[in-house]
Backbone:
C-alpha cells in the first residue's frame, strides 16, 4: 500500500442531527499516519492532479488514487455507544424472557464462561471483526466481570485499529454465582484494567480508553457504586457506562434495593456516577424529572431500539428527549435479536 491515499467520489458528512451534506465528486486525502488531512468538495476527474498539487501533493508512485465505483460513497464511521461483546454468542436466544429473566437464564451463564481467556479470544476476535465490518469505527464495549478476559478484548480492539472504550462489568450482588466476591476486589480489578488499557497506547491520543462499567444498579451494592463514583471524581477523564430504566420490573427491584433513592436515576446521582462523561443505556421509562436531572448533569442516552423491542421492554421517548435538549445516540446493540446491522 502506498504511503499516501486519495479517494475521489461521493462523500456524505453529517452537520447536525437533522442535516447532512452530500458532495457527489469530492477529493479526500489520507496521509501516511492514516489521518484525513483535507477534503475538497467538488473536483472533476480531470482536476485531481491540479488540486493535489495546490495542496502540496505530487502524484507519484507513493500515492494511491481510489476512484469510487457506482453505488459507493464515503461517510464517517458509525459510533456505537452500547455493545456487550460477550453476548454475541447469544444472538437470537431468549426471546421468551423479559430483561431480568433473560439475564439470569441466558446472559449470566454465557458470560461466566469468560473466566477462560482462551474462550474469550475465540469469541472476541470475530466479534470485533463483525462490528468493524458493519461500519462501526468507534465502539463502547462492555466486557464481563473478568479482568483478564476484558484485557483480551481491549488488546484485540487495539490490534485491529478500532477506536473504543472498554470496561469490565462491576457487579457484586443479585447475579447468582456470576458475581464478584467483594467491593474491594471489584475496584482492584478495575484499577488494574485501567492501567493495562492505558499502557496499550501510551500517547496523547490513544485509540482505546478505559471506561467505568457498573453493570446496573441491581448488580452493585451501594458501597461499590460509591467507590466507582470516587474513582470518577479522582480522575475526571474516566468515562462511565451503565443501564437505566430499561424494564419496569427492573425499576421496581432497583428502588427496593435503594429505598432512599427517589428514582432509578437518583441512585447514580447519589453515587457520583451521573456526569458529563456518563452513557446511560436504554432509558425507556424515565420520568420528566429524571430527564431534567440527566440533562443538568450533561449525561448522554444510548437508545437501543431493537433490544428494547425484542425483550418487550418498551418504547423510549427519544423525540421528547431530543426536544428537551438531552444528548441521545442510537446504539447498534442487537445482541438480543437475530442480526448485527
Residues:
Amino acid at each position: 500500500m502506498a504511503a499516501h491515499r486519495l479517494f475521489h467520489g461521493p462523500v456524505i458528512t453529517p452537520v447536525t442531527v437533522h442535516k447532512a451534506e452530500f458532495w457527489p465528486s469530492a477529493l479526500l486525502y489520507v496521509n501516511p499516519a492514516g489521518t484525513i488531512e483535507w477534503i475538497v468538495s467538488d473536483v472533476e476527474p480531470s482536476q485531481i492532479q491540479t488540486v493535489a498539487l495546490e495542496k502540496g501533493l505530487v502524484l507519484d508512485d507513493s500515492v494511491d488514487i481510489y476512484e469510487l465505483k457506482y453505488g459507493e460513497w464515503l461517510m464517517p464511521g458509525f459510533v456505537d455507544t452500547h455493545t456487550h461483546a460477550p453476548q454475541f454468542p447469544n444472538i437470537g436466544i431468549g426471546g421468551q424472557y423479559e430483561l431480568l429473566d433473560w439475564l439470569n437464564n441466558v446472559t449470566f451463564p454465557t458470560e461466566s464462561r469468560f473466566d477462560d481467556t482462551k474462550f474469550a479470544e475465540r469469541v472476541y476476535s470475530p466479534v470485533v471483526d463483525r462490528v468493524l465490518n458493519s461500519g462501526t469505527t468507534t465502539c463502547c464495549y462492555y466486557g464481563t466481570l473478568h479482568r483478564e478476559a476484558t484485557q483480551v478484548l481491549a488488546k484485540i480492539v487495539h490490534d485491529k485499529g478500532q477506536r473504543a472504550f472498554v470496561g469490565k462489568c462491576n457487579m457484586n450482588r443479585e447475579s447468582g454465582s456470576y458475581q464478584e466476591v467483594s467491593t474491594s476486589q471489584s475496584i482492584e480489578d478495575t484499577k488494574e484494567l485501567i492501567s493495562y488499557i492505558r499502557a496499550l497506547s501510551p500517547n496523547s491520543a490513544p485509540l482505546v480508553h478505559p471506561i467505568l462499567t457498573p453493570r446496573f444498579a441491581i448488580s452493585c451494592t451501594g458501597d461499590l457504586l460509591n467507590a466507582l463514583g470516587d474513582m470518577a471524581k479522582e480522575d475526571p477523564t474516566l468515562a462511565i457506562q451503565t443501564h437505566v430504566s430499561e424494564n419496569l420490573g427492573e425499576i421496581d427491584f432497583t428502588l427496593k434495593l435503594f429505598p432512599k433513592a427517589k428514582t432509578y436515576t437518583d441512585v447514580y446521582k447519589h453515587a457520583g456516577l451521573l456526569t458529563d462523561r456518563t452513557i446511560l443505556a436504554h432509558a425507556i421509562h424515565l420520568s420528566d424529572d429524571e430527564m431534567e436531572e440527566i440533562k443538568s448533569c450533561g449525561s448522554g442516552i444510548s437508545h437501543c431500539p431493537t433490544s428494547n423491542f425484542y425483550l418487550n421492554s418498551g418504547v423510549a421517548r427519544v423525540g421528547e428527549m431530543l426536544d428537551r435538549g438531552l444528548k441521545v445516540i442510537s446504539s447498534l446493540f442487537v445482541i438480543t435479536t437475530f442480526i448485527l446491522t
Q: What stands out?
A: The chain has eleven helices and twelve strands.
